[in-house]
Amino acid sequence: MNLSLGPLQYYWPRDQVLAFYAEAKSWPVSRIYLGETVCSRRHQLRLPDWLELAGELAAAGKEVVLSSQTLIESEPDLNVVRKLAGNGRFLVEANEWGAVRLLEAAGVPFIAGATLNIYNHETLDVLAEAGARCWLPPVETSRDALAALLERAPAGLETEVFAYGKLPLAYSARCFTARHYNLPKDDCQFRCLDHPDGLTLATREGESFLTINGIQTQSAGVYSLIGELPALRALGVATLRLSPQSHHMGRVAGIFSAALAGEADAAEALARFMPGKPVDGYWHGHAGLEYAKERAC
Amino acid sequence: MPLELICPAGNLMSLKAAIDNGADAVYMGFRDNTNARAFPGLNFDDAQAAEGLRYAHERGRRVLLALNTYPQPDSWARWTHAVDRAAKLGMDAVILADAGLMRYAVKNHPQLRLHLSVQGSATSYEAINFYREHYGIRRAVLPRVLSLPQVENVVKHTEAEIELFGFGGLCVMVEGRCLLSSYCTGESPNSAGVCSPAKAVQWKETPSGLESRLNGVLLDRYGKDEKAGYPTLCKGRFEVAGETYYAIEEPTSLNTLDLLPEMLAMGIAAIKIEGRQRSPAYVAQVTKVWRAAIDAVKKNAAGFKPTQAWQAELNKLSEGQSHTLGAYHRPWK
After folding, report:
1. For chain B, what is the mean pLDDT?
2. CATH number of the domain at A2-166+223-276, please?
3. Closest partner residue to A73 among B74, B76, B145, by Cβ?
4. Given an 8 Å threshold on Cβ–Cβ distance, is A174 in contact with B180?
5. Which of the four pLDDT bands, split at 50, 70 and 90, describes residue B51?
6. Residue ranges of the domains in chain A?
7. Would the CB atoms of B71 and A122 count as touching at under 8 Å?
8. Which of B81, B91, B85, B117 has the alpha carbon at shortest distance from B25?
9. Which of A69, A127, A163, B78 is paired with A112 by a 20 to 30 Å CA distance?
10. Domains in chain B, ordered, with CATH?
11. Using CA atoms, how far apart are residues A166 and B233, in angstroms rounded to an integer?
12. What was the ipTM of the complex prediction?
């Protein structure tokens, strides 16, 4: 199995983004996803910047994939997707079905992202026919559901699984970060920049529950499948996706890489670098916020 | 015919209430998790569905079947069987979210009219046109996230009819793109046909107030004079950076009566009323108001203004007794 670095979900200052990817060149990830997938108002890097970065990372030996925006609202949003589909060099991850249409029309292979809602083999087959060469199940997919799907999956398609990071759970037209600051979305003053790992939403008894990240809502818990590598291997999963966080990302990638190489105590080492409590309920067919080790106690 | 009125039918009584009060069509689901309102005691078996179809067709109205959850790999046949049943019963359309299921429907029942469900999360005409080109969908229901000018841009660039939500519960998130419920309870609209399922809800009277929990997670705590609503996850009060408030959305309903002239002008095919889980009396009252409003706007769009009586009636039925224009009105975002 290989590791990939998922698209950056947060909004960081330009220099921080560039420094992050400069470091990533030396991390043990073979594939790197680039681009803005959450909010079209974020423009510290624009498409030409991402393309330039893509060139640098490719030159450093990484397979680069350009990720499309998940919620498309306007014609300018669509125009960015059109440019991605016609970029002529890098693979694209389609995160909604408009991108699928444009990529199919362009006749280029693509990666079918987790928000396309591929819950069964028939829909996966539809995407394979449209040109998908790799796909991700929705993040709520359990091991058993994935196994049942893969039994009847079309041949020759690579499977990638979201294996580490706060889970992207929901998308809205409303910006919850702007709402927190009592600002209109159109004049949000880019407050996301102040929250490099999102803004924690807790219950009224102080339990961390979700993470606000602009129009996206994530889990507060950090999903981790580091203890599930044998099961993932047995299913034939080719790639594990690690989702970027503002600190220790290189350590996280290093630990996953060590775990893949058979190091036994990697899971414990990982806990120190997580920006939240570990969760893995989805993988076991339970509520996403559960953690198998706690259940066992 | 523009601006058809599409009303919810959670059971036969609601179906009749909707038809009797002027719905052009009703939508229903089968009694299992093939639809996004898989609640106990709701929905139709085949005999009830046949009776509903008879009642509607005798009065020149139509019945649409929501098959809008995502088929699970270990029970794929339940969804294809539901499509077969819909075709056999003579449903006027099926409302689907899953591309694989659309492909099945087209292949096996080419005469069956397909609508793209709001659960398909298609917010752009490129996405809608994918389903139109591949499966010939005739209509798409838009997620409740676009502003009116954005809706208009979609209408202009697709031959599919566009249906909009007009009234009822307000999903803040893009439908089909929200897993908050399964993160908390293990069951989401996509995979289980439920959001914040009743079986995971707990109410408890405590010294600091009435508490509502979902699978143990505290969603809200109500003071003596506060009215407690159904604990839908996104409408709870949470704490963000030391401040406690409705961090995602207030308990409020969508109400777009004010926007009817614009919707008519841009060629919206149909207005959908949310609420298959609501009572027949609710369906009757809401349908009656919306029938009157749609007739009025068609007669005189320029002079259209919702009457105070309509708004008062709808507010009475709204969650939290308040309403919003939602994303159609840009400042909501």
Report:
1. 95
2. 3.20.20.70
3. B145
4. no
5. very high
6. 2-166+223-276
7. yes
8. B91
9. B78
10. 4-170+252-332 (3.20.20.60), 180-245 (no CATH)
11. 19
12. 0.97
Encode pLDDT of A19-44 as tens digits: 999 999 999 999 999 999 999 999 99
The DSSP code sequence of chain A is -EEEEPPP-S---HHHHHHHHHHHTTSS-SEEEES--S-TT--SS-HHHHHHHHHHHHHTT-EEEEEPPSS--SHHHHHHHHHHHT-SSSEEEE-SHHHHHHHHHHT--EEE-GGG---SHHHHHHHHHHTEEEE---TT--HHHHHHHHHTPPTT-EEEEEEEEEEEEEEESS-HHHHHTT--GGG-TTGGGG-TT-EEEE-TTS-EEEEEETTEEEEEEEEE-GGGHHHHHHTT--EEEE---SSSHHHHHHHHHHHHTT-TTHHHHHHTT-SS-EE-GGGGTS-TT--HHHHH-
**pLDDT of amino acid A267:** 81
Measured between CB atoms, which of B127, B241, B243 is closest to A98?
B127
User: Using one digit for the tens of pLDDT, what is the confidence trace for A96-151?
Assistant: 999 999 999 999 999 999 999 999 999 999 999 999 999 999 999 999 999 999 99
Give how far B58 is from chain A: nearest CA, Å: 37
Mutant choice from A204, A279, A289 vs B, greatest count of B C-beta within 10 A: A204
**pTM for this entry:** 0.97
CB pair distance less than 8 Å for A119 and B182: no
Residue pair A28/A3 in contact by the 8 Å Cβ criterion: yes
Q: Tokens 């708004």 sit at which residue?
A: B311
Task: At B185, list the tokens.
Answer: 């309870």
Q: Determine whether the interchain pair A101/B129 forms a contact, defined as Cβ–Cβ distance below 8 Å.
A: yes
Nearest beta carbon to residue A140 from set B73, B191, B241:
B191
**Interchain contact, B248 vs A73, CB within 8 Å:** no
DSSP helix/strand/coil, B50? helix
Strand-pair category, A91-94 with A63-67 = parallel
Per-residue pLDDT tens over the stretch B143-196: 999 999 999 999 999 999 999 999 998 889 999 999 999 999 999 999 999 999
**Dist CA B289 CA B295 (whole Å):** 10
Which secondary structure element, helix H or strand E, spans residue B255, and what is its range? strand B253-255
Closest CA to B252 of B196, B322, B316, B326: B322
Tokens 């003053």 -> residue? A189
Choose among B161, B36, B241: nearest CA to A194: B241
Q: Cβ B182–A282 below 8 Å, yes or no? A: yes
**b/e sequence A180-193, b meaning 16+ C-beta within 10 Å:** beeeebeebebbbb
Q: Which one of A117, A176, A206 has the shortest CB-CB distance to B70? A: A117
Nearest beta carbon to residue B184 from set A152, A202, A287 = A287
pLDDT in tens, B63-116: 999 999 999 999 999 999 999 999 999 999 999 999 999 999 999 999 999 999
> Cβ–Cβ of B71/A120 closer than 8 Å?
yes
CB pairs under 8 A between A and B: 216
> Do the Cβ atoms of B145 and A285 come within 8 Å?
no
